[in-house]
Specification:
Elements (H helix, E strand, L loop, with lengths): L3 H22 L21 E5 L2 E5 L64 E3 L4 E3 L10 E7 L5 E9 L8 E6 L3 E6 L11 E9 L2 E2 L6 E5 L19 E3 L4 E3 L10 E7 L5 E9 L8 E4 L5 E6 L12 E9 L2 E2 L6 E5 L9
Parallel strand pairs: 4-11, 13-20
Antiparallel strand pairs: 1-2, 3-5, 5-8, 6-7, 6-9, 9-10, 9-11, 12-14, 14-17, 15-16, 15-18, 18-19, 18-20
Length: 349
């Protein structure tokens, strides 16, 4: 246990040290903008304390750096708003950009496209079980049929389908009919065994889609040759030949093929004629060199490229013409004769 005298000496030494520290660390409380400096204490001489019966020697105190008092140095604060000073350059004031506020469009519900009602086709004529036209076996009269049906709203075309009894293929299969009717013409005729039990139906194309077929109707054709026959004594058209004239000399070719045969025939028109038949044959020949239907044209031009007629067949060529009026051929014209020039008569072409 430490001696009481020693405790007193230690207490005095501690008290002296504390007084030293306090004397060196105190500063004025007055606000001074000068920052606080560290205070360096000079080493104090060795202090010798003597007590009764004990000597206490304190070691010299090294240089002590005192910390500044916790009192902070006040800093001048500028509370005014700083003013931005631009350098002396050309000032530019930005033009505010107008922002277009989008106009609110009131929302509207889309109008639904009305749905077309299904088109139900209704056949008009020929009616159920009707008897329609037929032709004649002499082709003097043909077939004429008329079909009619109800209009379909919005339809752009119609499809008509007509077939005979037991037939594998239709006689009418038209799908581009623009209106609700159709006129059919044929120069033929229907045999009596096929007259009965014809059928027809129609459908419409609306908005690019075909409707359902209409109901099927049946019809019959009248007996063949029911329509009037041609007059018993039709006016006969007599064709008048014009060229080549009787006894004329026509072109011939060359044996070397360097020239061709060219013949021209011409005759009078026959009123109402739809066809003409020209027939030309050589002397003693069994088969004609020209046997042609010229249609409704009353002339004919023929060319035999590289051909020629031998000299022993030059003489006695004949030609004639007949006309077809009202489906009937008239009588032949009179026969005219012509000859052919000698072979190689023309220079090479």
């Amino acid at each position: 246990m430490p001696h009481p005298g020693n405790q007193a000496i230690l207490a005095l030494a501690v008290t002296a040290l504390l007084m030293l520290v306090l004397a060196s660390g105190c500063t004025s409380s007055t606000a001074d903008p000068t920052p606080t400096t560290l205070v360096h204490m000079s080493p104090s001489p060795t202090t010798r304390l003597e007590a009764k019966g004990h000597t206490a020697t304190t070691a010299p105190r090294s240089t002590a750096t005192s910390k500044p008092t916790a009192t902070s140095t006040p800093t001048a604060t500028d509370t005014s708003t700083p003013t931005l000073t631009r350098p002396p350059t050309t000032s530019w004031t930005p033009t505010p950009t107008r922002t277009n506020t989008p106009t609110r469009t009131p929302s509207t519900m889309p109008t639904p496209t009305p749905t077309r009602q299904p088109c139900h086709m209704s056949l008009v004529s020929p009616s159920q079980g009707a008897t329609v036209d037929n032709g004649r076996t002499d082709i003097y009269d043909g077939i004429e049929w008329n079909f009619d049906w109800s209009d379909c709203p919005g339809a752009t075309r119609y499809h008509l389908y007509v077939t005979g009894p037991g037939a594998a293929y239709p006689i009418i299969d038209q799908d581009m009919i623009p209106g609700s009717s159709y006129h059919h013409v044929s120069r033929g005729y229907i045999m009596d065994k096929n007259r009965l039990g014809w059928t027809w139906k129609v459908r419409a194309n609306v908005d690019g889609r075909w409707s359902e077929w209409s109901k099927i109707r049946t019809f019959d054709a009248e007996p063949v040759n029911s329509d009037p026959q041609p007059p018993s004594n039709p006016q006969v058209c007599t064709v008048a030949l014009q060229s080549p004239k009787a006894g004329a000399l026509l072109d011939n070719g060359r044996t070397d093929g360097e020239d061709s045969i060219e013949w021209d025939f011409d005759w009078s028109d026959c009123r109402g004629a739809t066809q003409y038949h020209l027939y030309v044959i050589g002397p003693g020949a069994k088969n004609p060199v020209i046997d042609v239907d010229t249609g409704a044209t009353s002339a004919y031009h023929t060319v035999g490229l590289g051909e020629y007629i031998v000299n022993n067949n030059r003489f006695g060529w004949t030609w004639k013409v007949r006309a077809c009026v009202n489906g009937q051929w008239g009588e032949w014209s009179e026969v005219w004769v012509f000859d052919v020039e000698p072979v190689d008569a023309d220079p090479p072409s």
